[in-house]
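F.,

This is the one I mentioned.
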């Protein structure tokens, strides 16, 4: 059975936006596009609207936002917190937004969730068809097979081998060469940067992977799966929300170190676990 995106939704908590390298880069793209006009943004795999809500908070009516996600739970949450934006439940954009073209399309941590590399290519092909000629595509994607990242070591040591599949539903494992070659087939790459370097990976190891492993061993896999920010955020349980606040306070120093490291080492793919690719439409 695959990852259950309804019972274990993603992209709901906005608590880590302060040290969000992806969001920082997205805002730079939005700033550039807004110099000439009001813009339309589509996020594929928007989850509970973490990125869109942050953008709406900053830019307000200067942007119109559209989001699609396979999780009904996540979309319902997004609709609840952003009543004026357009969110739909769907696996692809084929049946939606037929008459729409977008200034910016976001693919933030989505390509790794698709069934295979063929689906990745089909998604990029669809994205190109929905992008305005002057538009931008922002892709953020884990590169779990990138040599010397922590997940690469896990794979070599045969430990925690399926940790991102169990925790996040990652079905595709890329290295930086593979993902760039796939993107080049459908879009023109204008900038490549990296994040999720050593300190961010260390934070996930100490505050996420290890605790989830212990919870699974002591309790059950179901309990382990529930232990994620999104579930705590929507549980309406006072204790859970209290625990979440303490959790973020404790890990905030290493989040800050990871964010600073990503800024300093953004051009370096050495040991990085995530790649950011900014693309333009390929014009014939």
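My design for it:
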């Amino acid at each position: 059975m695959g990852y259950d995106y309804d019972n274990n939704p993603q992209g709901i908590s906005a608590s880590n936006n302060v040290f969000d390298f992806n969001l920082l880069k997205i805002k730079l793209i939005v700033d550039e596009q807004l110099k000439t006009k009001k813009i339309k943004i589509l996020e594929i795999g928007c989850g509970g609207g973490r990125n869109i809500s942050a953008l709406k908070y900053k830019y307000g009516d200067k942007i119109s936002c559209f989001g699609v996600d396979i999780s009904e739970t996540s979309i319902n949450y997004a609709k609840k917190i952003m009543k004026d934006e357009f969110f739909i439940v769907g696996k692809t954009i084929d049946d939606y937004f037929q008459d729409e073209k977008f200034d910016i399309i976001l693919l933030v941590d989505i390509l790794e969730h698709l069934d295979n590399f063929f689906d990745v290519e089909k998604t990029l092909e669809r994205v190109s068809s929905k992008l305005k000629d002057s538009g931008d595509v922002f892709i953020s994607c884990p590169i779990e097979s990138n040599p010397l990242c922590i997940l690469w070591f896990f794979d070599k040591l045969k430990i925690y081998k399926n940790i991102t599949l169990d925790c996040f539903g990652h079905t595709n494992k890329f290295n930086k060469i593979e993902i760039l070659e796939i993107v080049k087939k459908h879009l023109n790459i204008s900038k490549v940067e990296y994040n999720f370097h050593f300190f961010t990976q260390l934070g996930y190891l100490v505050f996420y992977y290890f605790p989830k492993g212990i919870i699974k061993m002591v309790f059950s896999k179901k309990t382990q799966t529930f232990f994620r920010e999104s579930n705590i955020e929507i549980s309406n349980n006072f204790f859970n929300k209290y625990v979440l606040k303490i959790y973020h306070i404790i890990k905030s120093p290493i989040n800050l170190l990871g964010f600073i490291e990503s800024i300093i080492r953004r051009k370096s793919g050495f040991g990085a676990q995530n790649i950011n690719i900014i693309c333009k439409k390929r014009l014939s």
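The mean pLDDT is 88.

Talk soon.
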